[in-house]
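Supplementary Methods S3. Input chains for the assembly prediction are listed below.
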Amino acid sequence: MRRPQRWGVVVLVVALASARGAMARPLDGQDNPTPAETPTPAETPTPAPAEVSATADPRDGWRHEFSPAWHMATFWSKENSHYTFHSLSLGYLMSVNAAGPFLHLSWVIPLQARQDGRVHSVSSLYQNGGGVDVMLGFQWRKTLTPEIEFEGGPGLHMNLLNLGGQPGLTNFNAFQIGPGGMTVLRWRPGWRPHKVGWTVGAVGALGIDLWDPLRSNDLRIGFTLRMGVVLGVDLP
Amino acid sequence: MRRAALGAVALAATVFVACLGPYPNVGEKLDGVAQVIGTSYIALDAGAPRILILAPFDGGTSAPFTRIDEAQPRAVQTIQGTYSGDATNSLKVTFSTNTVFSLPNEASKPVSDRSGASRHELAPPTQSNATIATSTSEVLDLSGSAEVAGHYLRLLGRTAVITGTDATATTCAFHMFNLVVESSEARIPGFNSAGMTQYLNRVEPFDGILSGKITVGLVGLFSPVVTLTYIDYADFEGVVLDGVQVSSTNASGDGKLSGVVDFRIDRAELPPLEGSVDYGEVTLTGGNESGDYVVTLDGGAPVRVPTGRRNPPLEQCLGL
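Predicted structure tokens for the full assembly:
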């Protein structure tokens, strides 16, 4: 009975230490700790070198970013129709640590719809349309220079599209799922307004959609491409 | 904004409980019917009624046609296109089909697994060749392609066989009425399936093949109430509908029907039969009807017609 309790304490301590490390580290790891957090020499006369190097990894920490992007979903149905939707997407991007999970969550606003060579303005056929694009996966970060960081990794992609038809027209819905991957390139400018660190960069994500449970799997194959900018601010 | 939110909720719910069938075309019209104003005929095809509507040539070489097959339990296939004569042989006719409406029999499936009514445009059109064996004012015999062949009798002459207001006449009148109801349902995309969610908080009109309109609307996602409103609605000669049918169910299709639809059955050289169908005693289980339709002919007593197979059969009602 005691062993699980001991393991529980160990796991809790490790988890808290990891979370603290993650939350505390901005992109470049150069932020000075506040005086209140600085241990006095009397309290820690000889800090361990290993600890310093572990917490100084500039790739550690959370990244929360806003990402406006161009979103294209092109797919072929088993009935041999080719559809393409060009959209504006507004996304939230999140990732954790040098190697850790990531989430890309985007609200998609379709602007143009194409089918078999015919091009339509979405607003002329549909009303109150929108979609959600989600990619969830695992990423690795690499610093190219102290200010530039690269992030990439594979994930599971889902694209949900709901276009309500104008009076007299059918709705268009899709829910496409498949593997995908993403890359983010970030740059941390030296200029820090009000001492708040920020990042700017670019994102590219590709989903290869193979399954649509909403449409009796009428999907033969689809590709979803999202390319845009990322804007991030260091959270306290 | 509210409709967008409802749409998103509907879609999310549909994702988890149902599928909507293949992708529609971008900007596809809900109502894809072509009106065909012409002479209506009825035949039996392996015991199931087959209705053929032929528009007159009016001096041209081709004219629109519609053929409706209605099997039991409810399964409807309607084809539309044009037919044309052969310049060298006036007895040869070619039917060119460009649109197919179908409502399959999915009574054994849960509502969430049904594909429901659908429409397919055929490009290029399919060709069916037939030969006119007999053609009089009352009889049209077509041989050849199984798509259109049959021993047809003019519909207005057959409805004249229904006379009186007794239980048999009332039941036969209901069978004619129900041919139109089922024919109309086959042309509402998504009917009898989760695809009906596309009518959430909207009312969409569909033209009758011959005249009038039916409107479809749905309110409530998890306890859907579907309202079909017939307005001088006719798919073929002889039967015109006016009234409202309402289905109130849960998401599994369990619930009841309500509403009253009036009908008028035109008869050659006889005054029309008029009456009404009250759906108040029909229950729905998994989207399937059970119970009785309460049918009343003007001047007659209410007759309870059980749901299910036609009894007496149409061939007996119409002398086919």
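The first strand of chain A starts at residue 62 and ends at 77. The domain at 62-233 of chain A is CATH 2.40.160.20 (Porin).
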